[in-house]
Amino acid sequence: MSGIVGRLLGSGSQLARSLLGTAQLPIKESAAGFKVKSRLKLRCRSCYFTRVDGRLHVECNEHPRHKTREIYNVKTLW
């Protein structure tokens, strides 16, 4: 039975999908957060430093993969 169902779903038949009640989920684009590094540097011309909550961040409008932030320093809590 699973072979028949697999062939029906694998062929992309809308009728089979509607009969079996399987719906395709919308694709979610993943957005990566900041990379965490101990030493920050500007990687291109559009990178710039900002300070957020006492931590240095590198932001970049041209290349979002350049976003980095400083490691959270636990020693400043005491």
UniProtKB/TrEMBL annotation:
Family statement: Belongs to the bacterial ribosomal protein bL36 family.
InterPro entries, alphabetized: Mitoribosomal_bL36m (IPR052143), Ribosomal_bL36 (IPR000473), Ribosomal_bL36_sp (IPR035977)
Annotated source species: Pristionchus pacificus
Gene Ontology molecular function: structural constituent of ribosome
Coiled-coil residue windows: none
Descriptive protein name: Large ribosomal subunit protein bL36m
Lineage: Eukaryota, Metazoa, Ecdysozoa, Nematoda, Chromadorea
Entry's Gene Ontology cellular component terms: mitochondrial large ribosomal subunit
Iron-sulfur recorded as keyword: no
Example GO BP: translation
Principal location listed in the UniProt entry: mitochondrion
Keywords linked to the UniProt accession: Mitochondrion, Ribonucleoprotein, Ribosomal protein, Transit peptide
